[in-house]
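PROTOCOL LOG
Step 1. Enter all chains and additional molecules of the complex.
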Amino acid sequence: VTPGAIRPSDWELPVFLHVLGATLLVGTLSVAVVALIAAWRRDRPAQVAFLSRLGFWTLLLGVFPSYWLMRIPAEWAASKEFDDTDDEPAWLGIGYLVGDLGLLLLILTLVLAGIGAYKLRRGDEARSGLARAGAVLATILLAAYVVAVWAMTAKPG
Amino acid sequence: VSLYDWLLFFHVAGAFMVVAGLVFLGVALIVAWRRERTDEAAVALWLAKPNARLFDVGGVALLIFGLWLVFHQDAYGITDGWILLGLGLWLVAAILGSRAARRYAAVADVAAAGTTPAAELRARVQDSTGLLLYVLTVLAVLIAIAVMIFKPGLES
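Step 2. Run joint prediction.
Step 3. Record the structure below.
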């Protein structure tokens, strides 16, 4: 446990950027989840297509850059706090697991939501199973990030 | 997991909710900014709806668990400069953010009614007072996060 009171000052910039990225990541992902689920629940094809596009673009322009703003400073902060010989604490392992698997899930979500939104825009179909799959994956991703936030702050182990 | 860690988690969770609320409103404004169609502007502004609830609940959690942390942790004192600065920024963000939220919730209601022309909705979205309230709230929250992490004045 490293309360802020005893955190060395040279850790603070990477921690600040990491926290900023994480808050933006969860915020933008929440918007994408709400937009994609709303697209799922609405009946009017124009609104379904619009919300699906909004969800996709929020993932691409909001969630994806925020992920890197969270992840790169995380590595920077970890390199200052732990050296290669240290045993990795459980909370850091959870962070890495959610961060790295989360990136794969995010890319998959982007692809599904993107193709789904494209098909809806072209009017190929009134409903898109791919966009719905994107909504489910984005929701799972959001839940995983909430667990990661808990691990990063409560620091189990 | 110690009490300190749980308090920190709920304090940080509050901060995440506040930022999420601001992101909801920000995305709604960006998307609604130049909409030519009223129905699309209405859907975009509908996204601003969770803003107020997230901002209110998150703000209260942030304050309660933050103060609890201060009284729980010996290293912190309620009269420390960085804590007073944080409380001041919380107050500024709460006042300006709730005014921005109310303002745009009203625009969302007007848009949802579907009777207002798109041009008038755009004018309301692009209203400089609302935007100023929003930008100042974002700045206050950003500075507050920096203050909470850098803790200026606290001995390492």
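Step 4. Note key features.
The interface with chain A takes residues 1-2, 4-6, 8-9, 12-13, 15-16, 19-24, 27, 31, 39-40, 43-44, 46-47, 50, 73, 75-76, 142, 145-146, 148-151, 154-156 of chain B (CB under 8 Å).
Helices of chain B lie at 3-32, 38-46, 49-72, 81-113, 118-125, 128-150.
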